[in-house]
Amino acid sequence: MDPPIPVVDPVWSGVRDRLRARGLRWTPQRRTLIEVLAAADGHVTASELVERCRAIDPATTPSTVYRTLDVLEDLGIVRHHHGPEGREEFHVLPGSEHGHLHCRTCGRSWEVGPAEVAPMLDALRARRGFEADISHLALVGRCADCRAAGRRQ
Amino acid sequence: MDPPIPVVDPVWSGVRDRLRARGLRWTPQRRTLIEVLAAADGHVTASELVERCRAIDPATTPSTVYRTLDVLEDLGIVRHHHGPEGREEFHVLPGSEHGHLHCRTCGRSWEVGPAEVAPMLDALRARRGFEADISHLALVGRCADCRAAGRRQ
DNA sequence: TGCGCTATTGCAACCTATTGCGATAGCGTG
DNA sequence: CACGCTATCGCAATAGGTTGCAATAGCGCA
After folding, report:
1. What is the DSSP code string of chain A?
2. CATH superfamily of B99-148
3. CATH architecture of B10-92
4. Contacts of B124 in chain A (CB under 8 A)
């Protein structure tokens, strides 16, 4: 048993079984990461996750976290996309698929729902047969506030 | 063919003056990078550029290349965006502004012109006031060939 | 419960990219 | 043409991220 995690959320409680069903294993390291992810909200960078895991288990190794994240992405439990600096950012599922807007000037970011990008995705699919993955989409630019304020770069 | 690079292209021949006009300098290291860029076609990663510079001048230092690329981007001579792995890729101007499509399965990439994404950009501008930078756009997904062939990941 | 297969871990080395700093060298000026 | 200001260079150190490999430890099975 694993008492330390009174996981109630069915998404998280099912992870163990989903791993096993694939012949993968449920390890203390993975348990730690799941714990961190369950508490995470919105976007987190990989290094933030490493840090939070270390807060729980100081022995946490970066490589383990990165490899586990790959596994979880395979399972569809997390999604990653590349932030404005090219760093990986993870987004915890469930939740609707969405892309991201990053303001180059102030650094804030927003989510864009499927509806807003659907026309473009449809056009790409129709004209080129290219099926784009919206959850990996990250648009960089300038937000309304920064434009109004005339702020640059 | 390309002889030893008697740069004729006005874009490249003008770089020196554009640098000077800004109080910046024309150095052998920058000349080397310009030479490499002039010969480059399409997209190149930063490390490819470092390597090619080393082929011309073995003493080339990575930091110099990276810093020079920043300067050239300021001048609007190159653009960078983040490839599927999050690595920086540079694109040489001139040429129309465009985004990129990366096939997750086969790794190939294509360019998308302004027309194809304009509707989305317009919608974002109208609804959120967000001015997205198309040249920084990179969409990841699966191309027509891979979809037709039923290839996955 | 004990055994064995093999997924996973942790370490260390490596790669890409960035930054601080003293030394060097463009280039505008006199 | 020499001088001096300062942009740029090269080095070394650092950070984020990845990978190969030997050792460890889940977990299915008898």
Report:
1. --TT-----HHHHTHHHHHHHTT----HHHHHHHHHHHH--SEEEHHHHHHHHHHH-TT--HHHHHHHHHHHHHTTSEEEEE-TTS-EEEEESSS---EEEEETTT--EEEE-HHHHHHHHHHHHHHH--EE-GGG-EEEEE-HHHHHTT---
2. Ferric-uptake regulator, C-terminal dimerisarion domain (3.30.1490.190)
3. Orthogonal Bundle (1.10)
4. 101, 112, 116, 139
